[in-house]
Amino acid sequence: LALQPVITPELVQGRVHLKCSYSPASPEPPVLFRVLWSRLSSAGKREQVHQETTPQPFSYVEMDGANLRLGDTVFCTVTAFRRGTPEQQSLPEDSKGFYAGIKFLPESLEIAEDGKEHILTVLSTVPIACPGQDDSCKITLQLSTEELGSQVPGPPDIVLSACQVDLLPGPCSGSSCAAATVTVTAVTDFAQDGSRASRVSARLVAPRDLLWRAHTPRDVQVTVRDLPTGNCYSFTDPHIITFDGWRYDSYKIGTFLLCRSDSRPFEVHIRQWDCGGHRSATACNCGVAAR
């Protein structure tokens, strides 16, 4: 029998449940199903949490915060047998592992110091219950960033578009029952510091439901790839070195355009004044304006 068990989340009387569905068998006499629920332990081994025998083509288990907690990866294993001949069993079939809780997508990112924005989705794979009639019907997440693996911790190489997001309840679709997005951008630090890793963490802000209180969502690691940075200079009586290495002098008095980008609203103006006196025609930088 091809049972093909699949786990989906559901709210049952305001409580989060997982439902294991499998293809009903049609042959006579009637068929019974043995359903074994298990979770992945921290050591990576499966631990049995519930077992039942049922004629129904589905089985429910509650996320009670004790046997099954948010953050668990859950499996259901289904075996079919005929009533009266339990020794004649089908081969047990496993569902795919279902992660119950809040997670980031993608689960890791590799970006470059090029100013581009990258979408990071934070979602709940289980439905959000509404304990009251007020605005408590949401999960609020505080987001933070941290540099990884540095001997001397410095500011992270990434910046987020928001420090806080709300997950609002809605119908479950695919692997998401509630979702929000933020953008991640690499900080252009003008330093040749190689590829550096940071992480984005999420912390639940004062959840009312006991099920959510002990839940710590998985972090997402963001690796930032260094890109070479162009430099140009204007110094002393101004010697000028351009981005592509040309060198020349400028002794004129006045306000000048030092550089302008063709692709974005960025330009630098320079003001030069006479600093050589009567002896020589020499100009020095006395002011700068950048946009």
UniProtKB/TrEMBL annotation:
GO terms for molecular function: signaling receptor binding. It holds the Pfam family Ig_VWDE. It comes from the Eukaryota. InterPro entries: Dev_Signal_Modulators, Ig_VWDE, VWF_type-D. Residues 230-291 form the VWFD domain. Keywords: Disulfide bond, Signal. One of its GO terms (cellular component) is cell surface. This is VWDE protein. The lineage of its organism: Eukaryota, Metazoa, Chordata, Craniata, Vertebrata.
